[in-house]
């Protein structure tokens, strides 16, 4: 059997496609070949019987459209540049609507019930020249009931969730870019488990129109690539207000703050040992790392988030559950029942506490002189088994505050599975977070 792991650089593929050294039809064919070879073992993509014919047809039409648009400019020097993702194949989590592909959201509800206009984020991909390779598997309605996807590093282990298919598809080299979503930990945790880079922008930095909601106060579109350069290229297309020119962060390295206290104690011993080793590598590369006592009330923060989360997801499904409740899986139905038990008053109190928590977290970081938070991206390596997607607790406070975060591959556990390191920045600092993350990525690689 072909190896289930393969590196596909988004930046290199996009550059080759824009320069003409590669072409969209060849890229589409490679993608289909790779999916055919490894997806029967990984199960990252929602099955699509005519995927090859559809994708090759879309690639051929993309080439024809570009040739037609530039026919009046025969002088190569005067032709407009190809769009940034011209011919790049992309996986899209199956709660994000794509024209021509049914949306099932990991459920057995009739697809027509979940249909609607194409998601705004997919419009941006298509406008940038991307080709949609297909829908990727999600936990049912991006809650907790896992899909069938397996971790390409070891198929007996979970890839994380709920964006399981997107993370596994990139790790297995089926596509160089894939979209996910994060409500609590559904982008960052799968990136850590699958040994790739995942980026969750600031809340509301990317439009969620056309995305089936989980909890609207937290839902954020994110994405995966093999490296920070790849997620940065995608950010330039997908994020509102992205600067035209981005590059290495100027000035000294950022000060990194480690949030010591009850939150960090939720990580397992192996993750904490790895974090300590990573801190030493970064110190050796010139980074200042400070410990910041914070979140003494962490258990209350967890309760506050899930009070809001469950309340919102229950109300997002009011109509569908009334009609099709018997088709929902047990984990999802339980989450909805929990949400309906939350009173309006409890929800409003949790919202107020969230705003206070966000301010308090930012004040603690600022008082310590830290630019970024530095934490494990998950409590440890991917757990054994496919019945759970693992715990999102390492992502929870940052998602609660709506902060931008990135997961970087950072070594391996004793069992050989990947570990991830999470960097979190202030709200709205997304370009700086990725620029600084590139430096951290380089330092860890050198170490």
TrEMBL record:
Superkingdom of this protein's organism: Bacteria
GO terms assigned for molecular function: catalytic activity
Domain Amidase: 29-434
Protein name, entry field: Amidase
């Amino acid at each position: 059997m072909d190896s289930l792991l393969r590196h596909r650089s988004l930046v290199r593929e996009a550059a080759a496609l824009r320069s003409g050294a590669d072409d969209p039809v060849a890229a589409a064919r490679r993608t289909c070949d790779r999916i055919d070879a490894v997806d029967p073992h990984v199960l990252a993509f929602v099955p699509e019987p005519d995927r090859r014919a559809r994708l090759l047809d879309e690639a051929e039409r993309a080439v024809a459209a570009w040739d037609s648009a530039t026919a009046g400019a025969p002088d190569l020097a005067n032709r407009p540049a190809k769009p940034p993702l011209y011919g790049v194949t992309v996986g899209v989590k199956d709660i994000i609507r794509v024209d021509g592909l049914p949306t099932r959201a990991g459920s057995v509800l009739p697809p027509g019930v979940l249909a609607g206009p194409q998601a705004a984020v997919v419009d941006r991909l298509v406008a940038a020249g991307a080709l949609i390779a297909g829908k990727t598997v999600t936990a049912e309605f991006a809650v907790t009931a896992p899909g069938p996807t397996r971790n390409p590093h070891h198929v007996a282990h979970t890839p994380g969730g709920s964006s399981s298919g997107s993370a596994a598809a990139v790790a297995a080299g089926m596509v160089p870019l894939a979209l996910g979503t994060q409500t609590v930990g559904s982008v960052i945790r799968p990136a850590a488990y699958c040994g790739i880079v995942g980026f969750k922008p600031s809340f509301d930095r990317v439009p969620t129109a056309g995305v089936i909601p989980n909890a609207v106060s937290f839902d954020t579109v994110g994405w995966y690539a093999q490296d920070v350069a790849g997620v940065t290229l995608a950010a330039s297309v997908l994020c509102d207000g992205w600067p035209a020119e981005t590059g290495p962060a100027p000035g000294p390295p950022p000060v990194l703050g480690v949030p010591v206290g009850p939150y960090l104690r939720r990580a397992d011993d192996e993750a904490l040992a790895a974090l300590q080793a990573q801190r030493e590598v970064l110190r050796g590369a010139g980074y200042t790392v400070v410990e910041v006592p914070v979140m003494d009330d962490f258990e209350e923060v967890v309760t506050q988030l899930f009070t809001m989360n469950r309340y919102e997801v229950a109300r997002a499904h009011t109509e569908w559950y009334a009609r099709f409740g018997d088709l929902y899986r047990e984990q999802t139905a339980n989450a909805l029942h929990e949400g309906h038990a939350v009173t309006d008053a409890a929800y409003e109190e949790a919202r107020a506490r969230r705003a206070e928590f966000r301010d308090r977290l930012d004040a603690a970081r600022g008082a310590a002189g830290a630019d970024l938070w530095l934490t494990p991206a998950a409590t440890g390596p991917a757990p054994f088994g496919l019945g759970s997607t693992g715990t999102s607790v390492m992502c929870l406070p940052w998602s609660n505050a709506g902060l931008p975060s990135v997961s970087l591959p950072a070594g391996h556990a004793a069992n050989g599975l990947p570990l991830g390191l999470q960097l979190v920045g202030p709200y709205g600092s997304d370009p700086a977070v990725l620029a600084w993350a590139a430096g951290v990525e380089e330092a860890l690689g050198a170490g």
